[in-house]
UniProtKB/TrEMBL annotation:
One Gene Ontology term of the molecular function aspect: manganese ion binding
Top-level taxon in the UniProt lineage: Bacteria
Organism: Marinobacter pelagius
Cofactor names: Mn(2+)
Signal peptide: none
HAMAP family: LeuA_type1
Pyruvate carboxyltransferase domain residues: 7-269
Protein name: 2-isopropylmalate synthase
UniProt-listed Enzyme Commission number(s): 2.3.3.13
GO biological processes: L-leucine biosynthetic process
Gene: leuA
Class of this enzyme: transferase
Family of this protein: Belongs to the alpha-IPM synthase/homocitrate synthase family. LeuA type 1 subfamily.
Function, in words: Catalyzes the condensation of the acetyl group of acetyl-CoA with 3-methyl-2-oxobutanoate (2-ketoisovalerate) to form 3-carboxy-3-hydroxy-4-methylpentanoate (2-isopropylmalate).
């Protein structure tokens, strides 16, 4: 195995994480997350799938232009056009990587690729060589390796390394593997491939059976030295291995893992909250490391033990992963300079003074409603301001909602459509239902409401509520997010944002659909 003095963390939140239904991010949001990942000291940031769309290409290129401490990577199928497009997008990067892949399982080769094994090996070699003509750092993945035949894996991996691949990734694409078996697969590959010492071996595990982290760690114990993961475990279907769980498991159990990561763990919670705010995917309270209850103790016995000696019931310190590390709490008396400074510390930078002024105005308005403004509030303000960049046809001018015991709730709204105001009203089973029905009475979107979720951004009764609305139309799924101290207003904002996303259209090409 190629030498590495640490476990390489390859974050794919911006690529695989974005493939969660409704988790699509715009260019500005992707750059914010990329900067948070750089602050985390992530080794490799998979910035996107450059050929999927012009938006993906632009986002990858912008990240390549702005990130200097992490390697910037673009995914590419084993196709010339994919590889050339990826190379073009990452060209400005200080450190650049092309990640190319092809399916290797019998079921994928027969039914998806419709290729013979010899053809697949030939295509893989050609792809790696083409990628190496652009960059020195090339990663090759065997898609659906978890269901591939071991002999064929060894054959194609040996050929890929000979062609110039520096990293070999073994993905459990469909979450089929079991830890002991997956670890043994990694061990066998690394011992049977003659030139295995010339590459770093990597794993990319999905969570369909809830084993993504366990499988990844099993692979590390058997020699893997790169783990591909996402913030909050975001990703397709049941998600990916969670970065925060991988990092803290390895760091906490140094008695079992003789290697550590370079991650600055104090930035884990801020990164988690940023991704949650931007994607509209709330973190469950009992989520390991970053959930609200991760370091909470209700049992009297547990509380007593922790008070006497923390390590009786806590194997990590909350501060080490970023809980309660906000050094500056803003309020209504805070000035523009303090506001700007804190935004910069959070990796938020507006391109124009107009955007900054708008965000500052929103901050002051919120400060009049809340005693203290926390980092999570600032992230929500930034997201709300950024939405103005890609506004759709719909907007909320004002609204009034009546909800009274024994009276049918009623919502009256003034909406803007292409800048023109329209007054609408409707009754419903509750204030939110009435609000959505009022909006639909004008828009008639034909969308199906798949998810309505409310999450408090911070603690306290004056906290902003963050509402996520998931809409589906014609097979396309989007998430709209709205934040406000008034949950009904936040709900209206979220619904309208989702409608604007639906109205924009645009289909991303899925990286697992390969026309070869």
């Amino acid at each position: 195995m190629a030498a590495t003095d640490h476990l390489v963390i390859f974050d794919t939140t911006l690529r695989d994480g974005e493939q969660s239904p409704g988790a699509t991010m715009n260019k500005a949001e992707k750059l914010r997350i990329a900067k948070a990942l750089e602050k985390l000291r992530v080794d490799v940031i998979e910035a996107g799938f450059a050929i999927a769309s012009q938006g993906d290409f632009d986002a990858v290129k912008q990240i390549a232009e702005n990130i200097r401490e992490s390697t910037v990577c673009s995914l590419a199928r084993a196709l010339d056009n994919d590889i050339d497009r990826a190379a073009e997008a990452i060209r400005p990067a200080e450190r650049a990587r092309i990640h190319t892949f092809i399916a290797t399982s019998p079921i994928h080769m027969k039914h998806k690729l419709q290729m013979e094994p010899d053809e697949v090996v030939e295509q893989a070699v050609r792809a790696v060589k083409r990628a190496r003509s652009h960059v020195d750092d090339v990663e090759f993945s065997c898609e659906d390796a978890g269901r591939s035949e071991l002999d064929f894996l060894c054959r194609i991996i040996e050929a890929a390394i000979d062609a110039g691949a520096r990293t070999i990734n073994i993905p459990d694409t469909v979450g089929y593997a079991i830890p002991e078996q997956f670890g043994e697969t990694i061990f066998q590959i690394m011992n049977r491939v003659p030139n295995a010492d010339k590459a770093i071996f990597s794993v990319h595990c999905h969570n369909d059976l809830g084993l993504a982290v366990a499988n990844s760690l099993a692979a590390v114990t058997r020699g893997a030295r790169q783990v591909e993961c996402t913030i909050n475990g975001l990703g397709e279907r049941a998600g990916n291995a969670a970065l925060e769980e991988i990092v803290m498991a390895v760091r906490t159990r140094q008695d079992l893992f003789n290697i550590d990561t370079r991650i600055d763990t104090q930035h884990i919670v801020p990164a988690s909250r940023l991704v949650s705010t931007i994607t509209g995917f709330p973190v469950q309270p009992n989520k390991a490391i970053v959930g609200a209850n991760a370091f909470a103790h209700e049992s009297g016995i547990h509380q007593d033990g922790v008070l006497k000696h923390r390590e009786t019931y806590e194997i990590m310190r909350a501060q080490d992963v970023g809980w309660h590390t906000n050094s500056l709490v803003l309020g209504k008396h805070s000035g523009r300079n303090a506001f700007r400074t804190r935004l910069l510390e959070l990796g938020i930078q507006f391109e124009t003074e107009t955007e900054l002024n708008e965000a500052f105005t929103r901050f002051k308005a919120l400060a009049d409603l809340k005693h203290e403004i926390f980092d999570e509030d600032l992230q929500a303000i930034a997201s709300d301001t950024r939405q103005k960049e890609e506004e759709g046809p719909y907007g909320l001018a004002c609204m009034q909602v009546c909800s009274e015991t024994g009276v049918v709730p009623k919502a009256s709204l003034t909406l803007t459509v292409e800048g023109k105001e329209h007054k609408v009203e409707a009754e419903g089973s509750g204030p939110v239902d009435a609000t959505f029905k009022a909006i639909e009475s004008l828009v008639d979107s034909g969308c199906n409401l798949q998810l309505y979720s409310v999450n408090a951004i911070t603690s306290g009764t004056d906290a902003q509520g963050e509402v996520t609305v998931r809409l589906e139309r014609g097979g396309r799924i989007v998430n709209g997010v709205g934040a406000d101290t008034d949950i009904i207003i936040a709900s209206a904002k979220a619904y309208i944002e989702a409608l604007n996303l639906i109205s924009r259209g645009g289909i991303r090409q899925h990286p697992q659909v390969a026309d070869v």
